[in-house]
Amino acid sequence: MTPRSLLPLLLVALAAAQAQAQVKLIAIGSLSGQYEDLAHVTAPALENGIPGNRLGGLGSGLAYAGGTTFLALPDRGPNAKAYNSAVDDTASYIPRFHTLDLSLAPSDPGSPLPFVLTPSLRDTTLLSSSQPLVYGTGKAYGLPGGAPALNTRHTFYFSGRSDNFDATRPSTHPLNGRLDPEGIRVSRDGRSVFISDEYGPFLYQFDRHSGRRVRAFQLPAKFAVHNLSPRGDVEISGNTAGRVANKGMEGLAITPDGRTLVGAMQSPLLQDGGTNAPFIRLVAVNLRTGATREYAYELTNIGTAAKPKYPTVSELLAINEHEFLVDERDGKGLGDGSAAGYKRIYRIDLNGAQDVSGLIGAANLAGKAVTKSLFLDVVAALGAQGYSPEQIPAKLEGLAFGPDVQVDGTSKHTLFLANDNDFSAVITDSLHPTGAANPNQFFVFAFSDNELPGFAPQRFCGEEADRDED
Known about the structure:
By secondary structure, the chain is mainly β. It is 8% helix and 34% strand.
């Protein structure tokens, strides 16, 4: 017989399993990795020979903006091609976000999925500052200076190149020119976008139309590193506290009321144990006051043969004012020359969770983590539609709710999941020795209120949002 004490846990597990079984894939779409984006002035080749407006990495961040409009955020640019290890192969790519139309339409009878997703690119917006930024000279690495050629007297563009920083300041110095954007969300009035960054880590607010930064949020000092380097491994070995290089502020959510941002670190802080540790930090920021609170999230995918060590959180998405979806994943699959094994979306609740702002170290965070339950096993869901583990993109990072649709006469909510293809239009590896296309891909899932109780989608107001809702 099952002990009485275990019955509640078993019932919760059964309910979660039944819920995720009803979350169904309804559409797949893609944009070729060979395309160029609409920032034509950035088309000249970067230091590594790749076009400066390669349309790639769209799934680093994905945000819903109303109607069929989404914003897609590439990261710091194409650095998968080796050319200069002294700067981690980063190039002078100007960070940007894209405005996409992701339109769903019913499929023809007999199609494997009930909807067709047609992605199209509508606009490209470059990210800049009205204040002068710090750029590297490049001399020590045999490179030209890091200042973008498009800079003017009043516009200073951010850059993906890792040497664009002030070595005398902590990594959270807001005038550093380097930016590695990873998460994006739209303000309630539709006029701004909020972007998280790995280099600082940073949380920034940009004007949605011009791409100009209008605000930098002050994060707690514990997140900064003080010994900076253009090489991530050197930066990690040279610090005992702060974010792990290339694993900074990754996920970003905004609550439906538009009042709070919640950022997720990709991996634990160095003082919390670094990439060998089980707890990352979530940071909630009050948009009016700038006040912060911190919460611990315990990684599931770490520590044993059954849970291989790959402690990565890629995205955070608000369900309501206190509950969120978390994208926890491995780095395996298409683009890595391997088989995807662990890509899961969890539901968490901040209600009743302890503020861990004053706690340091994995031992002190133990027992303080937010509650979590499985919402969707992405590998299993895509496998049910015929995807082999080798076909599933390695870096499924962008997560956004979308418009409601009718499925078999029933209204359903939608969840969009996008990949970061690392700007590699074609991949050649042991699984694809003659090369294979590696597009920007989008997967759409449908769910009901029963599968995600308490779901309260973000509502927009203002001129920009009204136009998107039309």
